């Protein structure tokens, strides 16, 4: 779970959507026009999906700022795509409606907005990975709704499809029929949201590698490592595995080049433990680090460990998340799937191999990140740190609303004065505590709190029941939730008496 948290936060840090905000006049104009985005709910969701060959669904929350920014762009794209041949349907479902929460759960919705592409009656579901402004949405979905693989007939076709900055998978066949071709097209349809696919009968049109082959052959072209790799295995599972494994760099590079971002995402989506070496790419020792780190990555790449090399200048989000400091650079961090972290700061190039070996052999102790315990904690919203979490929350007989936040998060800053007001309104109620924990500066118990974004709110009743707050972030809504879910002192006393009576009977 902690690994998924790491993925979610770092990917959020990588990309900031640049969505245009329409003017008040445009808003008023659009409100009077027909709505092209189809509204779904639990009653019609399954039936609509099952009858659709291709449909895009936005899972959203009305209070979500990113959803509000996306809305006019999504509506504009839906309007344009409605006249496309064939038409492309864009839909939306409000995940905060009680009846719709089951639909969101079924589709593993962890944050808003989430867009998914449903193909062939929902038999094939893919994450939407395109732009979030109208023109970009239109172009991306036109391509996604077309053929899964493009035919290369000429040199011009090849140059228009094959880009030396992205991964392209090209199938070479003597004819476009037979089991090999059908399996290739099946895999292309399944993985088309992640990769570019093409097919041809003329290998001479495909750059790199042997050009006289007649196929069947699959050539994966990539902008890193050996630049291309071939396979003649056409079993569907084997072909998919070949593509997934071959499209991951031995060392993923994280800098400000947007062309690297897809590979960074693949790195964090990997099920492996993740080794991350951070240094200044302009330093005199950068090349020495690169060489030593790559040697180590080559040695351990088949042992459940993935490797990333990050430039300090581009990795500020990662530093905030892990609680690292620039004066620790060069440093290496390993995060395991169970959330444990291992750190070596002020590293020398010649020490990389030894430290990774010690980590693999279990000779490195994990570190736990916790802010210092506050000397004074007398503000209305109480401060919790990792070292006080157990006593403050789990051993407390109070009803506690706990916010997990990030200091740099805009939504957290907007929520802060609201929580202050709520805490102030409960100052005379000794049974209620409003608290906050900086999730970027403290490690959390991953088996209790599932933090996918900021802010995340949890409520623990006096009797110990823990639930996540996912409703409107207004003072009135939060107070209503607290009042509905709190345990009052007299209720607690009754429970204790019942418990004592049960023990006496035994």
Poorly predicted sequence stretches spanning 5 or more consecutive residues: 1-32
The third-level CATH topology of the largest domain is Glutaredoxin
Looking at CATH, the homologous superfamily of the largest domain is Glutaredoxin
Number of helices: 17
Give average pLDDT, whole number: 87
Secondary-structure-based class equals alpha/beta
Architecture (CATH level 2) name of the largest domain = 3-Layer(aba) Sandwich
Spatial strand order of the main sheet: 1-3-2-4-5
Terminus-to-terminus distance: 40 Å
Principal-axes shape call: globular
Give the number of DSSP strands: 20
Helix share, percent: 25-40%
CATH class of the largest domain: Alpha Beta
Alpha-carbon Rg, integer: 26 Å
**Percent of residues in beta strands:** 15-25%
- Biggest β-sheet: count, sense, barrel? 5 strands, mixed
Number of discrete domains: 4
Enzyme class: isomerase
Family: Belongs to the protein disulfide isomerase family.
Subcellular location: Endoplasmic reticulum lumen
Protein name: Protein disulfide-isomerase
Task: Kindly summarize this structure in a few lines.
It is built from 17 helices and 20 strands. The chain has helices at residues 2-14, 24-31, 45-50, 65-81, 101-106, 134-145, 155-161, 179-191, 236-246, 261-269, 286-300, 316-322, 352-360, 386-394, 410-425, 475-485, 489-505, and strands spanning 38-40, 54-60, 89-94, 114-119, 124-127, 150-151, 168-172, 196-200, 217-221, 228-231, 252-254, 273-279, 305-311, 331-335, 341-344, 382-383, 399-405, 432-438, 456-460, 466-469.
């Amino acid at each position: 779970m902690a690994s998924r948290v790491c993925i979610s936060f770092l990917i959020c840090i990588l990309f900031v959507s640049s969505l245009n905000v329409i003017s008040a006049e445009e808003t008023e104009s659009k409100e009077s026009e027909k709505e092209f985005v189809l509204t779904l709910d639990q009653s019609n969701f399954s039936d609509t999906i099952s009858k659709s060959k291709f449909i895009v669904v936005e899972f959203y929350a009305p209070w979500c700022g990113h959803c509000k920014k996306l809305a006019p762009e999504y509506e504009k794209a839906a309007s344009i795509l409605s006249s496309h041949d064939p038409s492309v349907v864009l839909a939306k479902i409000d995940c905060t409606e009680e009846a719709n929460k089951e639909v969101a759960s079924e589709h593993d919705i962890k944050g808003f907005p989430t867009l998914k592409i449903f193909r062939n009656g929902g038999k094939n579901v893919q994450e939407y990975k395109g732009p979030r402004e109208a023109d970009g949405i239109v172009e991306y979905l036109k391509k996604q709704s077309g053929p899964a693989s493009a035919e290369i007939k000429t040199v011009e076709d090849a140059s228009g499809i094959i880009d030396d900055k992205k991964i392209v998978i090209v199938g070479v066949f003597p004819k476009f029929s037979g089991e090999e071709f059908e399996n290739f097209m099946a895999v292309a349809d399944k993985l088309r949201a992640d990769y570019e696919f093409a097919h041809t009968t003329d290998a001479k049109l495909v750059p790199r590698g042997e050009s006289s082959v007649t196929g069947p052959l699959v050539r994966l072209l990539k902008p890193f490592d050996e630049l291309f790799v071939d396979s003649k295995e056409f079993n569907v599972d084997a072909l998919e595995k070949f593509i997934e494994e071959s499209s991951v760099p031995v060392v993923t590079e994280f800098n400000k080049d947007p062309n690297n971002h897809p590979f960074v995402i693949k790195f964090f989506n990997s099920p492996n433990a993740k080794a991350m070496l951070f240094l200044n790419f302009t330093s005199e020792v950068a090349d020495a680090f690169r060489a030593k780190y790559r040697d180590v990555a080559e040695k351990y790449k088949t042992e459940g460990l993935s490797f990333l090399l990050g430039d300090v200048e581009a990795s500020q989000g990662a530093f905030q998340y892990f609680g690292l400091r620039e004066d620790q650079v060069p440093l290496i961090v390993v995060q395991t799937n169970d959330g444990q972290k291992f750190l070596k700061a002020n590293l020398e190039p010649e020490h990389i191999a030894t430290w990774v070996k010690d980590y693999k052999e279990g000779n490195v102790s994990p570190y736990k990140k916790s802010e210092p315990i506050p000397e004074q904690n007398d503000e209305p919203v109480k401060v919790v740190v990792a070292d006080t979490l157990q006593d403050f929350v789990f051993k407390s007989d109070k009803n506690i609303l706990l916010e997990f936040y990030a200091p740099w998060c805009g939504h957290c800053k907007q929520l802060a004065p609201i929580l202050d007001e709520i805490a102030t309104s409960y100052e005379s109620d000794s049974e209620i505590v409003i608290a906050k924990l900086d999730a970027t500066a403290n490690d959390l118990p991953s088996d209790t709190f599932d933090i996918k974004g900021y802010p995340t709110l949890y409520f623990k009743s006096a009797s110990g029941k823990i639930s996540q707050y996912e409703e409107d972030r207004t003072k009135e809504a939060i107070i209503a939730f607290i009042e509905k879910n709190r345990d009052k002192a007299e209720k607690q006393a009754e429970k204790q008496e019942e418990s004592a009576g049960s023990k006496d009977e035994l």
